[in-house]
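pasting for the record
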Amino acid sequence: MEKDHIEDEVVLFGSWSSSICTRVHIALKQKGIAYKYVEEDLQNKSQSLLSYNPVHKKVPVLVHNGKPIPESLLILEYIDEFWKDSAPMLLPGDPHHRAKVRFWAKFHDEKVKISLITADL
């Protein structure tokens, strides 16, 4: 089934201070995907964000044609799968290399990012 990407509506809910949101910005730009960006006030989250990500209530959330995808790594996989004809691929084709990328991304999210947030700077 061929997808008509001309009419795609892509909205990214994010925060300028989030490296995880930056990850999604970079992916969208690398793939050449036009999108609307909605800056979220993380102290006063919008009803849209809360309805699109009712479990974790956090950014980033990608909304593609009205369908929300939360969590940055899931968003990257979705972007790669849906826009597979748009180079470059975000994740390696080899399953072992893809697993290594996921490992380091998760390590960043769970260890490095938390260390930076809790550091007394």
